[in-house]
Amino acid sequence: MKIGILGGGQLARMLALAGYPLGLGFVVLEPAADACAAPLAGHIQAAYDDPDALQQLAAKVELVTYEFESVPAAAVEQLGASLPVYPPANSLAMARDRSHEKNLFRELGIETAPFFEVHDLQTLRLAVEQIGFPAVLKTRTLGYDGKGQQVLRAGDDLQVAWETIGQAPAILEGLIGFEREVSLIAVRSVSGELAFYPLAENHHENGILRLSTCLHDDPMQARAENYAQRLLENLNHVGVLAIEFFQIGSHLLANEMAPRVHNSGHWTIEGAETSQFENHLRAILGLPLGGTAAVKHVAMINLIGELPDASAILGLKNTHLHLYGKAPRIERKIGHITVRETSEQALQERLLQLKNLI
After folding, report:
1. 191 with 167, same domain?
2. E strands within the chain?
3. 184-202 pLDDT, tens digit each
């Protein structure tokens, strides 16, 4: 069976790596000539919304998924007219637009930071009156890894922030002094079967995820799963759904969701009974979901901007190096490292060693 993937980056690459042992083949639709998934799949080089390219993809595969939520909705709609596309279009529509996403959280009783829709400078001023300082202005669409966001701390920041985000439709959120950020990788199959991975605690540098550590028996796990189940069932979602949360005391505030495999779940490749990539494929194919328990104490470090000394990394025990075949570039994710240890102390010691190497 062949599966089409909209997008040909590292997530598509890792989906293909997980799918080959299951006897699956892949075709990616990706405009970049140097797509890092291309060595593992057929590559249709074209824009995501190119009607001819979409028709060509549909003729080559039996099912379609996507690796990121910036895929145009029109592309999903065209493909969905002739073959199954998972996750469904409504999951994509909600995750693409921060306003739709936040309002869905609110409708389902999922806590969020205070937010206000912004259409122009006048509504931005009104939003600040409602929310106060500090706050963060975020474009409603196409923002990721800290892009399309501006922090506001005083009235003088408004004009500059509005111009910096390109005067695009946005939301203003209260800037939350959270204790930690955690994320949940959840999965729902076409049959409605659900599975949840342990929460991961995330740390960012310059707005880009740097470290995710798998948490064992975390007190927020049950609440995160409850929130995820509400979203999965409301959207009739099929596949992986990742949700990022801020924790403040006993409160768990949903920040955003991604209807796809997610960077904070890369630890699952070596660290869980079944990786998020394999479970996404199982879910969209209607196969039984695999176990999601962590097998040991695990963490994942993103490699950003430049390549490390591979020999030094691989010289450390219980350490796994994943390179994506992408040219180094400032703020670009070019690989990751997974560490799997028998105890929390050993894990932290190994992470300290890696910090000195990267």
Report:
1. no
2. 2-6, 25-29, 42-44, 63-66, 115-118, 135-139, 149-152, 170-174, 180-188, 194-196, 200-205, 208-214, 239-248, 251-258, 297-304, 319-323, 333-341
3. 999 999 999 999 999 999 9
